[in-house]
Design brief:
By secondary structure, this protein is an alpha/beta fold. Helix content is about 45%, strand content about 10%. It folds into two domains: about 100 residues, no CATH class; about 170 residues, CRAL-TRIO lipid binding domain (Phosphatidylinositol Transfer Protein Sec14p, 3-Layer(aba) Sandwich). This is CRAL-TRIO domain-containing protein.
Length: about 350
């Protein structure tokens, strides 16, 4: 919720030098930027502005160690087989999860099979419980097109030195009316589903950079507690998300209000991962400047170019998104009692505390 509220933003252009991004192969890229610490930042080929650079070399080995990934690929295939066997015995769950997405779930759950089972059950359960997030997922629809026109939310091509994927969130004009909040949340989850398939090697986690320069009280007012609660539970409990850091730039007084609203519902370790920056230079201590969009002094291309590339990618998945509308839990077949809205979200309008690895 913090991300979507604050993404109504217009960044101020900056000019800065590069920083290092180790652990990637040169033949994947057409350009390397010299870093301030003697290293280089791997930049994607210009012809592929939205390609998700995958870790390799020492960086990949470091990530695998953090994610507790087995060294023997056969062990991973064994785990996939165990999960498939478990799915086959769950009458209420679909059986359509492909190997690529199962690997992402395994990595996001640090290869805990029980945790993967819990996530997969929630992944399909939420599609039944919150259909407004998982139907009509078509970027050509006017409502979705409007969201993508006024909110930029692209995952960036590169990786941080720690192997994290950075996601930018910004708006384009503070004077525009708040776009459809459900459609905004839906777009975020669409990108999440694409990444389940296309993060083929695995990353250490996600880092969000939120530009709040055009966030207003009017934007904030459209995010109702009930809707926000559904979205947060969906993201944190149904997807293999590892939120490492949240960075807020171009802050204003409303930012403190929003952050203070969210913080009580997060565990202490997550509160400590929210960083409020008074200037862009401070952000560079955490995110290499060369991997950022050009509006922030980086070399990844402009936010609009990156966002448009992701819009095109989402368009390529239109048929898959449509097919997935039928891929959801069937509560009438669930062993034991069906999952109810009260059990999933509560009926008192309050948030429950979220756990993020």
């Amino acid at each position: 919720m913090l991300a979507l509220v604050l993404c109504m933003a217009r960044p101020q252009p900056q000019t800065h030098d590069g920083t290092l991004l180790p652990g990637q192969d040169e033949d994947e890229f057409s350009l390397f930027a010299e870093g301030t610490n003697g290293g280089r930042v791997a930049l994607p080929k210009a012809s592929q502005p939205m390609s998700l650079i995958q870790p390799s070399g020492e960086l990949s080995a470091k990530i695998k160690e953090e994610l507790r990934e087995p060294a023997n690929p056969a062990d991973i295939e064994r785990d996939i087989g165990i999960i498939r066997e478990w799915l086959s015995k769950q009458p209420h769950l679909p059986k359509d999860m492909d190997d690529a997405r199962l690997r992402t779930f395994l990595r996001g759950c640090k290869f805990s099979l029980e945790r993967v089972k819990q996530k997969l059950d929630m992944y399909y359960t939420m599609r039944n419980a919150v259909p407004e997030f998982f139907t009509d997922r078509d970027v050509s629809r006017p409502e979705m097109a409007e969201v993508l026109n006024v909110i930029h939310m692209p995952p960036l091509p590169g990786l941080t030195p720690n192997g994290c994927r950075v996601v930018m969130l910004r708006g384009t004009d503070k004077d525009i009316a708040t776009p459809n909040v459900v459609e905004s949340m839906k777009a975020t989850l669409m990108i999440g589903d694409i990444r389940l398939a296309e993060e083929s090697v695995g990353v250490a986690g996600d880092v969000y950079v939120l530009d709040a320069s055009v966030a207003t009280p009017t934007h904030f007012a459209k995010f109702t507690p009930a809707l926000v609660k559904k979205f947060l539970i969906c993201v944190q409990e149904a997807y293999p998300v590892k939120l490492k850091e949240v960075h807020v730039i171009n802050v204003s007084p409303i930012v403190d209000t929003i952050v203070n609203f969210v913080k009580p519902f997060l565990k202490e370790k997550i509160r400590e991962r929210i960083h409020i920056h008074s200037n862009i230079e401070d952000l560079y201590k955490y995110v290499p400047k060369a991997m950022l969009p050009s509006e922030y002094g980086g070399d990844a291309g402009s936010c609009k170019e990156l966002n448009d590339a992701w819009r095109a990618k989402m368009g390529e998945y239109t048929a898959w998104f449509k097919e997935q509308e039928a891929s959801k839990a069937n509560e009438s077949l669930r062993p034991g009692a069906p999952k109810t809205a009260d059990e999933l979200f509560g009926m008192d309008g309050t948030f429950r505390q979220l756990t993020i690895d």
